[in-house]
Structures are given as structure tokens and as C-alpha cells.
Specification:
The protein has ten helices and 14 strands. It is an alpha/beta fold and 340 residues long. The longest helix has 13 residues. Bound molecules: S-adenosylmethionine and iron/sulfur cluster.
């Protein structure tokens, strides 16, 4: 086989469109301490049954195979990944993996609530950085949006990540019409003043109520229009496979990002593959098919069989997510059970 190789042995994870996969997102749990409306229902969540959840040994085993196939970045997510009791231990073991490209960079996407207690131990265990979700700076909006009154705790978590040196601290906000779309300038000011990077996300059709409406969605163009009324934005070149497009704010060095998954999909450069907390490999957030790595691992599959499963999963990866196609179907799992 010609083309890029993954260090000393195995060819990298390339799909049929030539996309080399370097980024593995691992969901540590589907449980969460918040109930963001765009992600989870208020109640009656169909939790993944406990015995189906991967053990830490199983997660590390799968990640070790992936790192051997050229995965260089591992992002832990959920649900709320820090609800997993041994989250620090998981980070320690993943950050110690050694593949042909060296150890992977391990990062985390979190709602921040447990960071006051865990930021320092996570850093010590080898965590490189964090993305914290912060959709609003208004207590009442936070309460309505997440169905929990925890804005202060989230802000304390962000400060703890900063103090622990988990840099750069990136903040993510899903922009929703009539909810927080009037806050984008305030959120950027909040981030810039503290040396964080604010990133806005177009809402995707992953809500449990299936109420997402393309016409009501706040687009990248609208977000930029609001920001340009307050700041001078200059595009930062060299985006690579990153989902966020970046702009310097008022000449920099501060930057703001927009993840325009719907109006400007970045599928052509996608290098991500996802492992759910119950051991299903997904080639895309919006995939409708999954590859059952949990059964393989529990049946005693060797590394070659796991490698074959990774390759088969990516061989079926589609060119794009087709959200704008009238025939688009939302995945069966909610976002909290896929791993955002
Ligand atoms: N609980 C953690 C958190 O909130 O950061 C990690 C999991 S959460 C599913 C990961 C990211 O997905 C968050 O930034 C969240 O805002 C985003 N997200 C969830 N549902 C979304 C949706 N329908 N559209 C766009 N982004 C979404
Ligand atoms: Fe929980 Fe994150 Fe989903 Fe909010 S976005 S409900 S914090 S998993």
C-alpha cells in the first residue's frame, strides 16, 4: 500500500475519500449533571445499561489499538465525562499510551461542574487541555437552558481549569434564537478578558425532541454579523482539519471561533472517529450504523480483529452528513449518548 504510513508498522486509518483519521473521541458515560435542551430530555432519559458500558481496561485496550493505527489525539466526552468516577485514572492511562507517533494528546470536553475538584489532578495525570460548555452568562438563561441552576459552579470550573494550566481554555456555546443569540458579544468579551477562546456552535439536529428547525437556526453568518458590530474580525488562515474557523478579535492575539457544522460543513477534512460509552464505533456524529467493538473485545478478539473492525467502520464512512438533505434522518441516539 502506498501513501502515508503510521510510524513503524500499520497503515493509518484512511477512508475511501482519502481522509486520514487522527482524532478519536471517546465517550466516558452518557450520564450528565445538566439537561441542556439541545442535547437531553428533561427526564425519562433512556440510560445505557451498566453492563454494556466499557470498563476502563476495555477503553484503554481499544485506544491502544487506535493509537497504533495513527490516532494522535484523544478527546474525552460524554454525557459529562467527569461523572465517571475514575476519569483521572482514564486520562493517566490514555496519556501513557505510546504509538508510532508518540503518546496521544488527551483533551476533554466538559460542562465544567467537577473541574474545581479535578482540574489539578487531571493536569497532573497528563490532560493537555479542556473545552468547557458555556452558553450564557445570565443565571436565569442558564437555568432554563440546562434545567439546572449551576452557572456559578460552571464559572468556578472554568477558572479552575485556567488556574491548573489546562491551556488554552476553550469555551463552547451553542447559539439559539431568542435564548442566547443576543449574548455573543458579551461571551467574547468575557473570554478575551480572561485569555480564553470563545467558540460558537451552530445548533445541530441532535435534540431528543426532534424539534430542530433549519430555518430557526442561528447561522454562522448571523453570528459573525453580530460580532462585527462590536469587534474587528480578521480570518486566521490554516484551519486544517479543525471544526472551528477562527478570527482574530480586534487584531489579536485573542481569537474567536465558529463551528458551522450546518451551513459550512467541514466533512471534507474530517479526521474524527467516535467510540460510545457502550463500545460502539461511529464514523460520524450523524452515522446511522455502528461497529460493535464491545462484543469483539468481550469475545476475546485479538488486535488484528480490532484493527479490521476500525477499518471496516471507516470504509463505510460517508462523504458528508447531509443535514441539509430533505431525506436526512437524525441518529437514533441523542447527542449525550453519542459523545459530542
Ligand atoms: N457534557 C460535556 C459538555 O457539555 O461539554 C461534553 C458532552 S457535550 C454533548 C459536547 C458538546 O456538544 C458541547 O459543547 C455541547 O454544547 C455540544 N452539543 C450538544 N448538543 C448539541 C447540538 N444539538 N448541536 C450542537 N452542539 C451540541
Ligand atoms: Fe450534559 Fe453536555 Fe449534553 Fe449539556 S451538552 S446535557 S452538559 S452532555
Amino acid at each position: 500500500m502506498s501513501g502515508p504510513r503510521s510510524g513503524a508498522g500499520r497503515p493509518p486509518l484512511v477512508d475511501r475519500f482519502g481522509r486520514v483519521h487522527r482524532d478519536l473521541r471517546i465517550s466516558l458515560t452518557d450520564r450528565c449533571s445538566l439537561r441542556c435542551t439541545y442535547c437531553m430530555p428533561a427526564e425519562g432519559v433512556p440510560w445505557l445499561p451498566g453492563p454494556t458500558m466499557l470498563t476502563t481496561d476495555e477503553i484503554v485496550r481499544i485506544a491502544r489499538v487506535a493509537v497504533g493505527l495513527g490516532i494522535t489525539e484523544i478527546r474525552l466526552t460524554g454525557g459529562e465525562p467527569l461523572l465517571r468516577p475514575d476519569a483521572v485514572e482514564v486520562v493517566r492511562r490514555l496519556a501513557a499510551l505510546d504509538g508510532p507517533d508518540g503518546p496521544p494528546e488527551v483533551s476533554l470536553t466538559t460542562n465544567g461542574l467537577r473541574l474545581p475538584a479535578l482540574a489539578a489532578p487531571l493536569r497532573e495525570a497528563g490532560l493537555a487541555r479542556v473545552n468547557v460548555s458555556l452558553d450564557t452568562l445570565r443565571r436565569e438563561t442558564f437555568r432554563t437552558l440546562t434545567r439546572r441552576d449551576r452557572l456559578e459552579a460552571t464559572l468556578a470550573g472554568i477558572a479552575a481549569a485556567d488556574a491548573a494550566g489546562l491551556h488554552p481554555v476553550k469555551l463552547n456555546a451553542v447559539v439559539m434564537r431568542g435564548v442566547n443569540d443576543d449574548e455573543v458579544v458579551d461571551l467574547v468579551r468575557f473570554a478575551v478578558e480572561r485569555g480564553y477562546q470563545m467558540r460558537f456552535i451552530e445548533q445541530m439536529p441532535l435534540d431528543p425532541g426532534h424539534t430542530w428547525d433549519r430555518r430557526a437556526m442561528v447561522t454562522q453568518a448571523e453570528i459573525l454579523e453580530r460580532l462585527r458590530a462590536a469587534f474587528t474580525l480578521t480570518e486566521v488562515p490554516g484551519r486544517g482539519s479543525a471544526p472551528a474557523e477562527l478570527w482574530h478579535v480586534d487584531g489579536g492575539p485573542a481569537t474567536v471561533g465558529v463551528i458551522a457544522s450546518v451551513t459550512a460543513p467541514f466533512c471534507g477534512a474530517c479526521d474524527r472517529v467516535r467510540l460510545t460509552a457502550d463500545g460502539q464505533l461511529r464514523a460520524c456524529l450523524f452515522a446511522r450504523a455502528e461497529t460493535d467493538l464491545r462484543s469483539l473485545v468481550r469475545e476475546g478478539a485479538d488486535d488484528a480483529a480490532l484493527e479490521a473492525a476500525f477499518r471496516a467502520c471507516l470504509a463505510a464512512k460517508k462523504a458528508g452528513h447531509d443535514i441539509d438533505d430533505p431525506a436526512f434522518l437524525q441518529p437514533d441516539r441523542p447527542m449525550s449518548a453519542i459523545g459530542g
